[in-house]
Amino acid sequence: MNTRNTYLMNTLYLTNGRVITPQGEDDRLLFCDGLIADDLCAADCEYDLEGDFLIPGLIELHTDNLEKHFVPRAGVSWPAGLSSIAAHDVHMIVSGVTTVFDAITVGEPANRRHRNELFTASLDAIEAATERRLLRAEHFLHLRCELAGDGVAEQIAPYMECERLRLLSIMDHTPGQRQWRDLDKYKTYHGLHGTPEEEFAERLGMLQTMQTKNASKNLEAIVNLCRTRSLPLASHDDTTEDHVRENVDHGVSISEFPTTLEAAREARRHDLSIIMGAPNIVRGGSHSGNVSATELAKQGLLDILSSDYMPASLLHAAFLLPGLTGISLKKALETVTINPAKAVGLDDRGELAPGKRADAVRVKLVGDVPVVRAVWRSGQRVL
After folding, report:
1. What is the pLDDT of residue 202?
2. Alpha-carbon distance 109 to 88, whole Å?
C-alpha cells in the first residue's frame, strides 16, 4: 500500500474491499476533494482495504455518552470540559461514528440532578472544542426536553439560534407511565429497592406533582420554539396509540424508543421515523422490560438505530440484524447511515454515492463482531 499523504491527500482510491453502495456492493471507491467521486479522475494515493468492508460513516442521533466523561463515577464531576468532549469524540470515532448528535438533557427532575449542572458545561465544551478544531467527528446538538422539569423552555430558548442545534425531543420520565410503567423496573434502575414504602410514595408523589405543574405548559412552549426554526421534533417512549397521535398533532416526525408494539405500529401509520436502541439488539432485549427492537425490526417497524449509552453497539447491532431478521446487510446498515441522515435533513451524507461527503469506515469482521480499522471524514483520515 502506498502510504504517501495518507492523512492529507485530495484524492484517494480505495481498492480490494467490500464497498457497500446504494446499488449493492462494489470492490473500490474514489474520494476526491472530500466527496465521493466516480472513476474519472486520477488519485494521489491508493489504499488497499485487504478485503474488509467499507461502509458509510455512522450517524448517531441520540447518545448521552458525553455524560460519562463529565461524571465518570457517581458523585464525581470531571473539571476539564475540553478533555471530556475530546475523550467522548474519540470514543465515537473508534465506534465508526462520523456524525454525532450529542443528546443533552434539559430539566431533569429525578435523582440525576447533575444533568442540570451539565447542561451549560456540555454546550460550552462542544463549542470550545469545535472552535479549536479538536474534534474528529462532526458534532450537533440534540436537546432532550424533560417535560416535567422546571423552566425547561426558558433554558433552551437562548440556544434556539445556535446553528449546531439540529434536533429537539420531548420526554416524560415520570414513574408510573411510558418507560416506567413498571415501578419495580423503575426501582431497579434507580437503585431504590429497599427504600421504605412511605419514602418511595413521597418521591413518587413529588415527581407526579411536578408533571402536573409543568408538562403541559412546557410542551406548548417547546413546540412553539421548535417551529420557529423548523427543527425536527422527536417524541420519547411513546406507549399508547394516543401518545403517538397526540405527538403527531404537535409536529413530531421521529418516534424514539416506542415501548410497545402498538405504539410502533401507530408511528408507522403516521410515517414517523422509528428509532430503537442498538443495545437492545446486542443484549437481546430492553433493560426497561419494553418491546424488543429485534421484534420491531422483524415486523418492518425499525428505521433507525441509536447507540444511546453504548457507542460500540451501533455498528455491532447493524451487523447482527441480518442474522436476526433476515434483512440484507445493506438494509441493516441504512438504519445507522442514510435513514438517520434523512430524518434530520442531512442530505449531504449517509451513503457512499457520488457527490456525497466522503465519510467512511473500514470494518473487519472478527467472528460476528465488527471491528473498526480506519475512519475517514470528508475524505481525510481521522483514525
Report:
1. 66
2. 25
